[in-house]
UniProtKB/TrEMBL annotation:
Signal sequence region: none
CDD domains: HAD_Pase (cd07516)
UniProt-listed InterPro entries: Cof, HAD-like_sf, HAD-SF_hydro_IIB, HAD_sf
Keywords: Hydrolase
Family matches, as Pfam families: Hydrolase_3
Protein name: Cof-type HAD-IIB family hydrolase
GO molecular function: hydrolase activity
Keyword Hydrolase included in the entry's annotation: yes
Amino acid sequence: MTGTGTPPADFDLGLVASDIDGTLLLDWQPISETTIDAIHRCQQMGIPFVLVTGRPIRWLAAIAEQIPDLGRVVCLNGAVVYDIATGTIVDAHTLSHAGVREIVTAISAAHPEAHFAFETLTGLFIDDGFATRSPQDATVIADLDEIADREVVKILVSLGTDDSAALHDLLGPLVTRSCHATFSDPVNGLVELAPRGITKAKTLESVCDHLGVGRERVMAFGDMPNDIEMLSWAGHGVAMGNALDIVKESADAVTDSVADDGVAHYLNAALDALPAR
């Protein structure tokens, strides 16, 4: 970590990648006009602005309303690339039904109190004891065979506690060979499981390849552990002022908090430093 609010003067910015929650907005509030203006300025200078989020597709509608001219979005922690402008899935990494069953069996054997949710390309499915913020969006299932023909892109696991980091440390070793475990909120008590090898960084790399932008020209913003791989991979990783310490340690710099429009301030400074385009 090199400092606070100081973009490198010689950085050849070619693409900006940003997390959403805790980075562009706070507590499900709209993105500030200051931040939207910075995003539009970035785009007007010919620099792609790519959202990279743990959100499922159905939670992108509010973002599309505010910034309808966005293109490809990396969502579900890298499992899906979604074109927000056309409303189409560009690419998806899924878990096989056998793989889903293996994961659930391994966790349940060690922790019978575990409850699960399954994000698929066609909706959210949960077991009867899983608490979700959007129960109206979920379908309750009694058996895994009910989703045998669904394309699962993320599994969420709860043990009924609040400490996501402790839960990640507890469950991670059980599934490390079959999937990638992370978390995006330190106090919601959820661990998020993606297909093995899939992270925000891995899928962002494929988007950058599609756009012809090398990693050395990527500036990335994030605040939570599911952003660490992306911040480390990018040519210049920027942690939010409100980020967890472990995230700040993985970044090249730290900007202001999301409440203080940290992305806008840092991005505008970076754009100011670029030669006229």
